[in-house]
Each structure stands twice: as C-alpha cells, then as structure tokens.
Amino acid sequence: MKIENIVFDDGAKIVWQETAGISIVTIKRENVKNAMTPVMWQSLANIGRKIEDNKKIKVVILRGEGQQFTVGSDIKAFHTMSIQEADAAFGYMEEAITTFEYLRIPTIAVITGPALGAGLELALSCDLRVGTKEATMGIPIGRLGITISQRFAQRLVNLIGPSRTKDLIFTGRFFKGEEAYQLGLLNYITAEENVTDFVLNLAETMKKASPNSLQAAKESVARCVPFTEVAFGHRGFPQYVDPVDFPEGVAAFIQKREPRFTK
Known about the structure:
- This protein has one domain: 2-enoyl-CoA Hydratase, Chain A, domain 1, CATH 3.90.226.
- 42% of the residues lie in helices and 17% in strands.
- The chain is built from eight helices and ten strands.
- The longest helix has 22 residues.
- It starts with a strand and ends in an 8-residue tail after the last helix.
C-alpha cells in the first residue's frame, strides 16, 4: 500500500492511498466539516492529475473524514479576499472538480453526511455516489451571492432536471439521503456501518471489468450530455461571485445573521 499525506498549515490533510488498483482520496478537516481552502482545492487537482498518470489505478474512491463528505469551500476564507482573489479561488475549485470529472477511470464518491455547495459539485463529478440516510445534499448559494456557472448547473440538470435544479438553488433546500437516492443524486444508499465494505466491494467489481470498456462508456455517455456554452443576458458569466452580493453574503455568514442584499 502506498500512502501520501498532504498536510496544510492549519492541520488539515488530504490523504491519498493506493492499494491493489484502487485509489482512496480522503479529505480530512473534520473540525469544519471538511471545508476546503483554495490551496486544498489546488492540491486535490494535483492528486487527480497524478491518478490520471498512474495506469495501475483502476478505480478511485473519494470521501471525507467523519460524518461528512465536504461542505465545499471554506466561506470564512473568503472574508479577507478581494473579489478578484475570490474569483480565482473558485477557479481552483472548478479545476479540481473538473479534473476528477474527466478521469479516464471510474470514480465513486462516499456521502455519509453533508455534501454542500462545491462539495455537492465534487460529488457530482464522480461517476457513482454511495450514500447513507445521513447524507445531505444541497447548494445554498443564494445566501452568499455566488453566481453559479453553467458547468455547475449542468451537472445538476443532467441528474435531476432544470426545474428541480432551480428549486434547489432558489430555496436553498437540502435533500436528505433517501430523497437524494429517489431523485438520482445517489446511486446507492446503505447503512452507515456497511458503507465502507459496500464501496470497496463495488470498486472491486468495477476493477475486474475491461478498462477499455469502462473508458469507452465514460466517453460515450459524456457525448450524450454535451456541455455547451450559451449566452444569457449581459451578466458575463462565469464570473463566480457577484461583486456586491458576495461580500455581504460572506459577512452575514461570518456574523451569523441574515444577509441584506440590495437590488
């Protein structure tokens, strides 16, 4: 078994294990629900690129430490950033998510708690998602002034359709495990005590399949749901954050109050 620990200044870690053709990537920052800083997103993207280059790896498992996947980007980290720095940070996030989305091999996300915001998008970038009844999936960006990109929206639309995607974003509601499973956000739902064995057995099953068949399937399915850039109004998306609403949304988050957005 090969284990690589990437340790960050605040003690957070991303642990990358390789054993018998299976790569397991674990986000470890449990004290803040595995919230990701910009440098953590950059490191995750680098891990994805290393996995892509390692032809011995057949399946990837992506998970978070403890009773959560990840709540996405660390909102508190944005409080001291300029709009330009925040936009760049979202670029690092999208790079990491896209890197895992385009891996040539099957990927499995393990959702045992919150997968929110960018954490939800990271889960959706994986081919399959295994969850428990404690899984919580949502994208409450309306309280933060985040202007979702088309690529972010497309991942949701592909699974739950345009109306449910807008409902999820407009209301900030969360889908719990069983509802997420019924809607197709989760491929499998299992008991908390069984989730590790379930996921490893699933990975072993896929590991035995023809790599060329699986890669061809990923490519063919991707062509069935193409990503197409479209023009929409004059806002100039994808700028990832609104220059007025985002600072107010972050300040409200830090101060634990309702945001006061203006037209």
